[in-house]
Amino acid sequence: MYGAGDVRIDDVPDPRILEPTDALVRITRSCICGSDLWPYKTMEASDEGRRMGHEFIGVVEDTGSAVTTLRRGDVVVAPFVFSDGTCDFCAEGLHTSCRGGGFWGAGDVDGGQGEAVRVPLADGTLVKLPVPEDDALMPSLLTLSDVFATGHHAAVCARVAPGKTVAVVGDGAVGLCGVLAARRLGAERILILGRHEDRTAIAREFGATDVVAERGKAAVERVMELTQGDGAHAVLECVGLEDAFKTALRITRPGGAVGRVGVPQFEALPAAVPTFLNNVTVSGGIAPARAYIEELLPDVLEGRLEPGRVFDRAIALDGVPDGYRAMDDREAVKVLVKP
Ligand SMILES: [Zn+2]
């Protein structure tokens, strides 16, 4: 990406092993993230550009001498942050704060929207998938890299549990995955706040029981109506805009919790007083996807959940610039890239 609205396909030198803990991965599936749309809207023009993409599945082509758990030919999924898996933060399940970790596309690390990447800390980062590289489950497996793990994180942080009423703010891919994650964790009632009918239709298939198409104040009133004036026990904020966040806080039942996973496009957390008076917990943040992959994998492998339904378009690498445009224009929910 060279600036707002300026995504190009460039030839760059092939990645190679730089550290003994590296692996080289040939990418077989990647995708465009809702969070990629923030720089797509606002990035200042730059001559060097920035490598994009942080969700991918691929095949190990080579490994450094210190890599012990992976070998050439393994099909692997990468979480959207790489991590060593050995430090104290990783041990606590907070791989996004890994002392040795980092982000795809930064420094000399490749982005996922390409043909191949050098994966640092390969043993800690990559999770082997027991399927062939063109398995039909690929779209759903790819969501473990970010969106499904992020929706799950929102649900965990919002303390979704059996019998609870859950509200999900946002009908993008993460919001839809939040619905699926809430159902998986036993929520009794799941309200989705969204106004795109094609998306809320998927939400219903994922387990949403009510659709709130209103926005702002009217949405708050509608949720209150649906919850006998109390609000939801667990609210998943999956947008990142201040208005969405305020809505999330206003529809949380006293004593309830908000799990926020939308990348915040604002500085200060609003509603200090009402959340104080209502003892509302505000939790969440960047999802430690690596901590959740093994837990979520069996439901995907065994076909009980199909989070890959959030992909409604598949393109080759040369279609990536138009894929950004399609997601930004709300023409596509989430675009899968098959290099
Ligand atoms: Zn670590």
Low-confidence stretches: none
Q: How many distinct beta strands? A: 15
Largest sheet: 7 strands, mixed
Strand % is 15-25%
What do these coordinates show?
The protein is of the alpha/beta class. The protein has twelve helices and 15 strands. Strand 8, helix 6 and strand 9 form a beta-alpha-beta unit. The model has no long low-confidence stretch (mean pLDDT 97). The structure holds zinc ion.
Features of the shown structure:
12 helices; alpha/beta; globular; binds zinc ion; 7-stranded mixed β-sheet; 339 residues; 6-stranded parallel β-sheet
Short characterization:
The protein has 339 residues and is of the alpha/beta class. It has 12 helices and 15 strands.
What topology does this entry show?
Elements (H helix, E strand, L loop, with lengths): L22 E9 L5 H6 L13 E8 L11 E4 L2 E2 L5 H4 L10 E2 L12 E4 L2 H4 L1 E2 L9 H5 L4 H11 L7 E5 L3 H12 L4 E5 L3 H10 L3 E3 L3 H11 L5 E6 L4 H9 L1 E9 L11 H6 L3 E4 L4 H13 L11 E3 L4 H9 L6 E3 L2
Parallel strand pairs: 8-9, 8-11, 9-10, 11-12, 12-13, 14-15
Antiparallel strand pairs: 1-2, 1-6, 1-15, 2-3, 3-7, 4-5
Helix pairs in contact: 5-6, 5-11, 6-7, 8-9
The site of zinc ion (ZN) has 10 residues, from helix 2.
